[in-house]
Design goal:
- It is a single chain.
- The chain is an alpha+beta fold.
- The chain folds into 2 domains: 1-74, P-loop containing nucleotide triphosphate hydrolases (Rossmann fold), CATH 3.40.50; 76-180, P-loop containing nucleotide triphosphate hydrolases (Rossmann fold, 3-Layer(aba) Sandwich), CATH 3.40.50.
- The protein has 6 helices and 6 strands; from the N terminus they run ββαββαβαααβα.
Length: 180
């Protein structure tokens, strides 16, 4: 499903990622572990096509992120470390905005939004402004947007950072459910 071959990212003389190779099979849940500055977020940004590699190749279900970006990106749902939510929107408005941006057909949009809202358990807050939500609910809204379009691959960058212990347990349980 994901193949990373000889991935390298340099910033001038600094090497952020050095000749990384791995394969992730469909239906598996993996995590990157390492200290700050180890290249985890940089690797995820390259895999998702948000950042270019200096060298190497990333394939998503056989599609090169560099050479076939549209085909590869359609297969990916991504939540960066800071959820890209608009504070002046409600989750319902934001998810509709993201669904439109992803090109989800109008006839499927409402059902997909309902499905991701249920999966992430944000039904009770869907009509509140995002700025008034707890960090845990903002994370859930971010995960919901990553699920829109039914991606084959979901990449979550530090989905539990800054959450309280109860929220961490809830997000980890959600990730386990998504892995099924």
């Amino acid at each position: 499903m994901i193949e990373v071959k000889h991935l390298t990212k340099r910033y001038g003389n600094h090497i952020a990622v050095n000749d990384l190779n791995f394969t992730i099979d469909k239906g598996k849940v993996y995590g990157f572990l390492g200290p700050n500055g180890a290249g985890k977020s940089t690797t995820m940004n390259i895999i998702t096509g948000c950042l270019g590699a200096t060298e190497g190749e990333v394939l998503i279900d056989g599609h090169s992120v560099a050479e076939e970006p549209m085909q590869a990106k359609r297969l990916i749902g991504y939540l960066p470390e800071q959820p890209p939510v608009y504070m002046d929107m409600t989750p319902a408005e934001y998810l509709d905005f993201v669904a439109r941006a992803k090109g989800i057909p109008a006839k499927e949009r409402a059902q997909q939004i309902e499905t991701v809202t249920e999966k992430t358990r944000i039904q009770d807050v869907r009509n509140r402004l995002i700025r008034n939500l707890s960090k845990g609910y903002r994370q859930r809204v971010g995960i919901a947007q990553a699920l829109l379009g039914r991606p084959e691959v979901i990449i979550l960058d530090e989905p539990t950072v800054g959450l309280d212990p109860a929220q961490i347990i809830e997000i980890r349980e959600l990730i386990r459910e998504l892995g099924k």
